[in-house]
């Protein structure tokens, strides 16, 4: 049964709870449920191109007090419930850290004009979503997301992230702005990251930073050239590096293969919408509709011919031992459970 079907079949109650966590002078209010019983009307932005003008209601009002209840709204409620239930069921592992610091919020991109926060996850259409956010926040500077070069979309100064705000400003935005993220089948995302960062010759910075380290630790009798360049890392070596306890003790994973749980902190921050790579266009345009710009701005729809597929992922895992498959699944288990992805049929778990 497909994940989308499972989502529609699953109906749980809404968790209404507010947590306040603090350490020293840092206080971060985490909302697991946004109450919109008393909506506040906010100012309309000015000086913006027509493509980015929002409506009279903000996105949270449109989401939680819709003029008409749709199957899409019900689907997203089910996804929110799945995250809440997973966080509760895995409270020991999901709540190792009770407090978030500003550094934990560097992936949360803020759109002040439309009162939205987007947590970007690499290898889940984040380049195109950053382009869209640049259109939304550019006040007329941009109109077509695809006219923005990919490298420009990743320039940090082009978008403002939540860690750049003061603590009271952070709390206000977490409470009042619509927060969303996009997820992908964890192992498909992992293979996509490997293919992009370790099989493309132009990614020399990754080869030097990570490839040389992986070869040194995981390859017996490595040549001097391989140790120097790190540009021929095998997928089996990449997996062995990820499950090596030394790797996880040494430093956090790179964002391209870090878990969504660790990048976006969904057990600490309540996300109002959880989009999926498998339904990218529909979910993206639903968000733009809630933002009041759906008539003027559409999510880019072009398909990449080099996209990592489920069939491709299956092939990459054929040479991974069942022991390593089991260990790798444990690393990404919360992402599988939280976002309702079933255990892949090709896995041979011990």
UniProtKB/TrEMBL annotation:
Keywords for the protein's UniProt record, in alphabetical order: Carbohydrate metabolism, Glycoprotein, Golgi apparatus, Membrane, Signal-anchor, Transferase, Transmembrane, Transmembrane helix
Q: Where does the sequence pass through the membrane? A: 14-33
* Cellular location(s): Golgi apparatus membrane
Q: Domain of life, per the record?
A: Eukaryota
Supply the EC number(s).
2.8.2.-
Output the lineage of the source organism: Eukaryota, Metazoa, Chordata, Craniata, Vertebrata
Q: Which residues form the signal peptide?
A: none
Topology relative to the lipid bilayer, per the entry, is: Single-pass type II membrane protein
Keyword check for Hydrolase: no
Question: What is the gene name?
Answer: CHST11
Q: Which family does it belong to?
A: Belongs to the sulfotransferase 2 family.
GO biological-process terms attached to the record: apoptotic process; carbohydrate biosynthetic process; chondrocyte development; chondroitin sulfate proteoglycan biosynthetic process; developmental growth; embryonic digit morphogenesis; embryonic viscerocranium morphogenesis; negative regulation of apoptotic process
Q: What is this protein called?
A: Carbohydrate sulfotransferase
Tell me the GO molecular function terms. chondroitin 4-sulfotransferase activity; dermatan 4-sulfotransferase activity; N-acetylgalactosamine 4-sulfate 6-O-sulfotransferase activity
Cellular component (GO) terms are: Golgi membrane
Q: Pfam family example for this protein? A: Sulfotransfer_2
């Amino acid at each position: 049964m497909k994940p989308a079907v499972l989502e529609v079949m699953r109906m749980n109650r809404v968790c209404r709870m507010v947590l306040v966590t603090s350490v020293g002078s840092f206080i971060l209010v985490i909302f697991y449920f946004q109450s919109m019983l008393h909506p506040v009307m906010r100012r309309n932005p000015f000086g913006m191109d027509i493509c980015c003008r929002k409506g009279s209601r903000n996105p949270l009002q449109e989401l939680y007090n819709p003029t008409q209840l749709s199957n899409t709204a019900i689907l997203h409620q089910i996804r929110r419930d799945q995250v809440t239930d997973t966080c509760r069921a895995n409270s020991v592992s999901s709540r190792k850290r009770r407090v978030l610091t500003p550094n934990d919020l560097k992936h949360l991109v803020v759109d002040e004009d439309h009162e939205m926060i987007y947590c970007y996850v690499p290898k889940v259409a984040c380049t195109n979503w950053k382009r869209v956010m640049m259109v939304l926040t550019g006040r007329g500077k941009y109109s077509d997301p695809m006219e923005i070069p990919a490298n420009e979309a990743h320039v940090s100064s082009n978008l403002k992230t939540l860690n750049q705000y003061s603590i009271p400003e952070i709390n206000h935005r977490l409470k009042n702005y619509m927060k969303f993220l996009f997820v992908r089948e964890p192992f498909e995302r992992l293979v996509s990251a490997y293919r992009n960062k370790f099989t493309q010759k132009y990614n020399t910075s990754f080869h030097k930073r990570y490839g040389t380290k992986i070869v040194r630790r995981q390859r017996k009798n490595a040549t001097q050239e391989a140790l120097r360049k790190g540009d021929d890392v095998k997928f089996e070596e990449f997996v062995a590096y990820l499950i090596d306890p030394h790797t996880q003790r040494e430093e956090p994973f790179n964002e391209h293969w870090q878990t969504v749980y660790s990048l976006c902190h969904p057990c600490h921050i309540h996300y109002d919408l959880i989009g999926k790579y498998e339904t990218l266009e529909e979910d993206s345009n639903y968000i733009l509709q809630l933002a009041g710009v759906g008539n003027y701005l559409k999510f880019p729809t072009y398909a990449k011919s080099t996209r990592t597929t489920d069939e491709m992922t299956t092939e990459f895992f054929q040479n991974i031992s069942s022991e390593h498959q089991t260990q790798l699944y444990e690393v990404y288990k919360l992402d599988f459970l939280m976002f309702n992805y079933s255990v892949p049929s090709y896995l041979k778990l011990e």
